UniProtKB/TrEMBL annotation:
Protein known as: Beta-lactamase domain protein
Location of the Metallo-beta-lactamase domain: 107-300
Region (Disordered): 60-87
Residues annotated as transmembrane: none
Basic and acidic residues composition bias: residue spans: 60-74
Organism listed in the record: Clostridium cellulovorans (strain ATCC 35296 / DSM 3052 / OCM 3 / 743B)
Amino acid sequence: MAKRRKRKSTKNPVLPVLLLILGILIISGLLGLENATTDMPKATNIISKIFTSDTASKDKVSTNVNKDKEDKNTSDNSTNGIEDEEKKQVITPLTTSLKLHFIDVGQADSILLEQNGEFMLIDGGNKDDSSIVVEYLKNSGVKELKYVIATHIHEDHIGGLPTVLKSFPVKNFYIGKRTATTSIYKNLVSTAKNLKLTFTEPKVGEKFNLGGAEITIVSPNSSGYEDLNNDSIVVRVVYGNNSFLLTGDAEDESEAEMLKSGQTIKADLLKIGHHGSPSSTTAAFLKAVNPKYAVISVGKDNSYKHPAKATMNRLKAASIPVYRTDESGTIVATSDGNNITFDKGLGSYNGR
């Protein structure tokens, strides 16, 4: 007969030890032995060692399992991070446009720019135009003006600004350092001071943003112009692939300085200087700017005989489409960053 193999004992070695210690504790408690308290830590140490050795392998297995879970969670989190990032990249930003409102203020200037909820006003027309400008701004949703620019201190550009400043909060106010003794200029200065507005002098090359549009100051390049019109703050606005040059009343002397300055003046849209006067928009300047469109802010049947025939002939010879406030009223040019559209039809090349 084959010998039966002895089965390996499956008894837990911990049990006898536990029973032994339990017996010691009971006897110690019954006999009131003083050394029972000293034996208890020893017994505890024995149990701890046994449990440690017996559960080491189990802990190791448990650790490995937990590690696998952690690795999986880390992998899942990493995957979720990638998915979240992909979701962020898929989100399409709100598409907004840049709008330039050439407000019809007669023989004067006032241009409102808006981009992504931010607004800038360049000039405010004559004093008598103030209510027209303020009402137009309110109807356009203006609650605050991030920038106000007074191109120069002639009444047809700053006359309406005191009322504008009192009607809307203004964050930044740009004006040249040239002063005047006229009541119109004094009213503007006192209004700004009462509102605690700081006058910021333009610096050529300075850049700032209106929403997603970038504005650069390109003139005045001198402080010694005899004619105040040449003091005009000229800005170039860039939005996407489109650009705009807004010239105030800059005349030939200022235009020549811009050509020499090295500043970029090329633009898709040119706001014609000084309402189309014969001393603005020289052939050299027009060639350098090379605009696709021109806008003239001018009063109907004005006494200055603007726009001049010479200016209109230069625009016609260059085949530049013209938009005129004296013929169309307020003109709104809209850019999506690639194309510029107008809300009014083309104007004529008729000069006076």
